[in-house]
Amino acid sequence: MSDERPAQASSCMPEPSTREKQTLRNNLAFHFVAGLSTGILSASLLQPADLLKTRVQQAHSTSLLQTFRGITQGPNSLRQLWRGTLPSVIRTGFGSALYFSTLNALRQHVSRSNLLASAGMASVVQTNPRRTPSSSLSSSSSLPQLSNLANLTTGAIARASAGLIMMPITVIKVRYESNLYAYRSLLGAGSAILKHEGPRGFFSGFGATAIRDAPYAGLYVVFYEQSKRRLSQLKDATAPVGGEMKRSSSVPINFVSGVLAAGLATALTNPFDAVKTRLQLMPGRYENMVQASRQMVREEGVRSLFDGLGLRMGRKAVSSALAWTLYEELVRRAEGGTWREASTSL
Description:
Oligomer: single chain
Structural class: mainly alpha
Strand content: under 5%
């Protein structure tokens, strides 16, 4: 009788080494492509909500229902709901690519910095998936684990940097979505802005945008990581001992955490979004962020600062949750994933 031994995890791919995982985590191209793909997907699906938000914010007297009816009762209603999709896809796609690649680089740097760790800004990151129960609770995250201060800071810096680079296409996107401009192409829009407003026109509302985006991104990362930690603790009793939990658990935890984080961060930063929209659509009427906010409150009341909050909160909740969940899943899959359970069959 031949001495046949059962193949031990022969069908399983070998688990990537710590060095291989670290190499991937430092690969800017991978994180750029992952951010680009998630940004394009969310922008394409949720463009109608972004367009409706812009229309509501440009005219305080118009309600969401009136705006929606005005679009759907006109010619080419379906096409009009997706007006501005191209600049939106370019802005969100490349903006997400820049944001995620920059954020990953910052988080990796902070996690490896002994100085920041000693100051309490970075917690110890364990890349070995076979962690003992005493060393760490299971987690749905495939990203470096940092302190709240480090999450707030890195998120704000990454978003502000990406926002500055993408500001020209952001201005064009907002004007495309409004009904105050009749641009026929991206080139025509750029030429018109340059002719009538000069290079400065491409950065209209940048102050309000930066003040909106930097706190939003920082608060989002803090809320997102905290929510994942809390939900992971609730799930810890049924999660595998040590290491990262399975995809069946991590995906819904990450998505729900994204929705909750986006909702909270959006509510806190919506006034800056309302002011930013007015500055970009009506630069001749509003000179700067302070003057615009005062004029809006004086003429339309405090409620004008929260125009479009429901739409923005709903859109941000879905888009951010979708983008972050897909991004983390792409990172997890590319790393070989600690969900592979080759070790359990040994």
